[in-house]
């Protein structure tokens, strides 16, 4: 059986600047065998490695049907991501993965999808959005509700514009610290719930962002008739192994690296409401 | 619970094992002849590891002679206290245990995973799985076997099989010793893991005065019996051994009530006792280091001075460290209260959901080696009394 700790080299094909200190790296596996066998689902992540520095868990934002190129949006946040920020196309990183459980794109087929994202943390759901739009007729209405603190925190601007043009799709943006040029809603993302019509029996909700957004937002959705079992959240914890062995990513009885990072909300609701877990 | 013995795992030994008769699964060896067992193991290529007195406690060390073992020594353990005393007796296995379980032999404190070398266009990784070494450990206790079985479940029987653990595990032969004396810190009887070694051993010994009652627990173990000058075990001796082991179980003064776990501990999340224990806990990580089952580890890259090659390794980590709950600029578990609660809740409650077994085997090491003597068997009942005490103000927001 394959060694889950083995690191496969990957070349940076393209580096796309998203914002200050945030770049999307398009990676391509070097080994032919790895290229042939590597498959992932939207919402899964890789451990991205830099020689002599270490590894960091990063979600894959590209389309699962094109596993030849693996896009990772990486914000400078610590030792490894700072070092990665200095890389250029042609440089080599390493990949271990894919790990974890992705978005419930099968269960959501034929249903409306409500995507609620907050802050810089919307990367894990981008792959799922692209997946749905490539199969537009297989899903019902799509509502994308995205909140940022400041307007310059808004990543993937062109993508949002593109998604807005999709049929039966609404994209609503909000900022709670807007500037003069901001022409979208002002406030936090949960306020956008009031501005869209949701069919609670037919909708699946994908959430990604700060846990406070989920803790405050999900009760509102539940009051509107959406069961907590139709809400999925991508959660974050420190991860070092990706296979449920290093112990860092625990949330109650779950290892978010293997049971998550996408978790059905009713399973984790109790734990997200607690401090220090 | 997985019950894999060396017989299941030690495929490479099959060709060399001697013919055995099914009847040789038990016998009596005079203590004076124990060296024969060590010699047989040595001749079969095993490195023999046993308890040895070192710096005021016993540690696992390579031994060759029975006289290397802690003859006549006894350990006294209490919360925050470990003392050895020489009794002058000829008892070989009088010391119950030291700070180490079997964990370091299979889940190494530092395990190099990969050697990674810089190349012209990037790097190349090479796996560095250790050469299989045949190690025979003599003197493991029932609690140690239970800990090993739990680690097997985690490292070998999950979605991914850990090849580093598997390699070390394959080479391990375990000779257990049934306990006839309990420490003040022992509570294996209430955890149903001891004091008798029930499974997961190759041989099990019960030391009775100047006799050793030996039982084979695996094909390999029974194969060893054929090389020893055994006399048949009388029913009286077998009964006497069972009586001593039962008495050891009854003499245990600590216990851990598991019937309401995991749920009752989950519900105690806001219990004021966590503040109380956090006021005593130093977050020193000792309990997690001596625990036979704790498996947290960190992965690090250590380049050499030329920066042309780097050692990619995993090291034991602990949920009591500041870094354990760190995620980009934030600590999920910033206080000692958070970390002690994380540890105890994982060990006694969420472990059950994760692996179908408690993470505690009742060895009592975390009690002994805690510098301030925090005792989980004392903390748990207080935490579980939560629901029964209407006077305690509940501050929990959920449920």
Topology:
The complex is a heterodimer of chains A (277) and B (399).
Chain A: E1 8-19, E2 22-29, H1 32-37, E3 45-50, E4 54-59, E5 70-75, H2 79-85, E6 92-99, E7 112-118, H3 123-134, E8 142-148, H4 157-164, E9 169-175, E10 185-186, E11 203-208, H5 211-223, E12 231-234, E13 250-251, E14 254-255, E15 262-264, H6 265-272
Parallel strand pairs in A: 7-8, 7-11, 8-9, 9-10, 11-12
Antiparallel strand pairs in A: 1-2, 1-6, 2-5, 3-4, 3-6, 12-15, 13-14
Chain B: H1 6-9, E1 26-30, H2 34-43, E2 47-54, E3 57-62, E4 73-78, E5 81-86, H3 103-106, E6 110-119, E7 122-127, E8 135-140, H4 142-156, H5 163-170, E9 172-177, H6 188-191, E10 203-208, E11 211-216, H7 219-225, H8 235-250, H9 263-266, H10 273-280, H11 286-290, E12 297-303, E13 309-316, E14 326-327, E15 330-331, H12 336-355, H13 365-368, H14 376-384
Protein described:
The complex is a heterodimer of chains A (277) and B (399). Chain A has 277 residues and is α/β, with parallel strands linked by helices. Chain A folds into 2 domains: 91 residues, Beta Barrel (Elongation Factor Tu (Ef-tu), domain 3), CATH 2.40.30.10; 161 residues, Rossmann fold (3-Layer(aba) Sandwich). Chain A is built from 6 helices and 15 strands. In chain A, strand 1 and strand 2 form a beta hairpin. The two termini of chain A are 33 Å apart. Chain B is of the alpha+beta class. Chain B has 2 domains: 245 residues, no CATH class; 126 residues, no CATH class. Chain B has 14 helices and 15 strands. In chain B, helix 10 crosses helix 12. The longest helix of chain B is centred in the C-terminal third of the chain and has 20 residues. At the A-B interface, strand 1 of A face strand 6, strand 7, strand 12, strand 13 and strand 14 of B.
């Amino acid at each position: 059986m394959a060694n889950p700790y083995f690191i496969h080299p990957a070349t940076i094909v393209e580096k796309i600047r998203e914002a200050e200190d945030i770049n999307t790296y398009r990676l391509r596996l070097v080994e032919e065998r790895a290229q042939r066998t590597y498959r992932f689902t939207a919402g899964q992540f890789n451990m991205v490695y830099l020689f002599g520095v270490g590894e960091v868990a990063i979600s894959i934002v590209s389309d699962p049907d094109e596993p030849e190129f693996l896009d990772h949006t990486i914000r400078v946040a610590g030792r490894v991501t700072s070092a990665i920020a200095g890389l250029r196309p042609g440089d080599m990183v390493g990949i271990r993965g894919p790990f974890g459980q992705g978005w419930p794109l099968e269960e959501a087929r034929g249903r409306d999808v409500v995507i609620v994202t907050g802050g810089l943390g919307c990367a894990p759901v981008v792959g799922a959005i692209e997946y749905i739009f490539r199969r537009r007729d297989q899903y019902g209405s799509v509502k994308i509700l995205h909140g940022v603190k400041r307007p310059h925190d808004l990543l993937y601007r062109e993508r949002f514009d593109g998604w807005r043009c999709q049929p039966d799709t609404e994209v609503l943006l909000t900022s709670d610290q807007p500037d003069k040029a901001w022409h979208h809603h002002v406030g936090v993302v949960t306020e956008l719930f009031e501005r869209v019509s949701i069919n609670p029996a037919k909708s699946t909700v994908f959430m990604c962002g700060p846990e406070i957004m989920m803790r405050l937002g999900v009760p509102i959705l539940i009051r509107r008739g959406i069961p907590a079992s139709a809400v999925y959240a991508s959660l974050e914890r420190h991860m070092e192994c990706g296979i449920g062995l290093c112990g860092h990513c625990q949330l109650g009885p779950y290892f978010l690296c293997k049971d998550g990072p996408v978790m059905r909300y009713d399973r984790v609701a109790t734990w997200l409401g607690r401090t220090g877990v | 619970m997985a019950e894999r013995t060396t017989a299941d795992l030690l495929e490479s030994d099959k060709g060399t094992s001697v013919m055995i008769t099914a009847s040789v699964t038990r016998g009596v060896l005079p203590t004076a002849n124990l060296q024969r067992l060590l010699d047989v193991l040595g001749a079969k290529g095993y490195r023999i590891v046993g308890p040895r007195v070192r710096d005021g406690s016993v540690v696992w060390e390579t031994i060759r002679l029975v006289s290397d073992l802690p003859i006549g020594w006894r350990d006294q353990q209490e919360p925050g206290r470990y003392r050895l005393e020489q009794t002058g007796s000829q008892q070989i296995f009088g010391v119950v245990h030291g700070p180490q379980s079997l964990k370091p032999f299979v889940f190494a404190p530092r395990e190099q995973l990969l050697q990674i070398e810089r190349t012209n266009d990037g790097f190349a990784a090479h796996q560095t799985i250790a050469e299989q070494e045949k190690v025979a450990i003599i003197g493991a206790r029932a609690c140690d076997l239970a800990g090993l079985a739990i680690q097997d479940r985690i490292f070998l029987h999950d979605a991914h099989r850990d090849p580093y653990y598997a390699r070390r595990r394959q080479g391990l032969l375990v000779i257990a010793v049934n306990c006839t004396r309990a420490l003040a810190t022992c509570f294996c009887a209430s955890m149903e893991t001891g004091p008798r070694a029930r499974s997961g051993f190759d041989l099990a010994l019960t030391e009775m005065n100047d006799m050793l009652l030996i039982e084979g627990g695996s094909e390999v173990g029974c194969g060893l019996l054929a090389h020893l000058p055994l006399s048949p075990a009388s029913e009286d001796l077998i009964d006497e051994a069972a009586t001593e082991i039962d008495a050891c179980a009854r003499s245990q003064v600590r216990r851990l009530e598991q019937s309401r776990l995991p749920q009752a501990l989950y519900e105690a999340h806001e219990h004021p006792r966590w503040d109380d224990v956090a006021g005593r806990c130093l977050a020193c990580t000792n309990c997690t280091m001596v625990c036979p089952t704790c498996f947290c580890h960190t992965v690090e890259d250590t380049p050499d001075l030329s920066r042309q090659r780097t050692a990619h390794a995993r090291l034991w980590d602990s949920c009591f460290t500041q870094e354990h709950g760190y995620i980009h600029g934030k600590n999920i578990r910033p206080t000692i209260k958070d970390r002690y609660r994380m540890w105890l809740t994982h060990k006694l409650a969420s472990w059950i959901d994760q692996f179908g077994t408690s993470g505690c085997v009742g060895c009592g090491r975390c009690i002994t080696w805690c510098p301030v003597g925090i005792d989980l068997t004392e903390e748990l009942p207080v935490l579980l009394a939560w629901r029964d005490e209407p006077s305690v103000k509940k501050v929990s927001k959920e449920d």
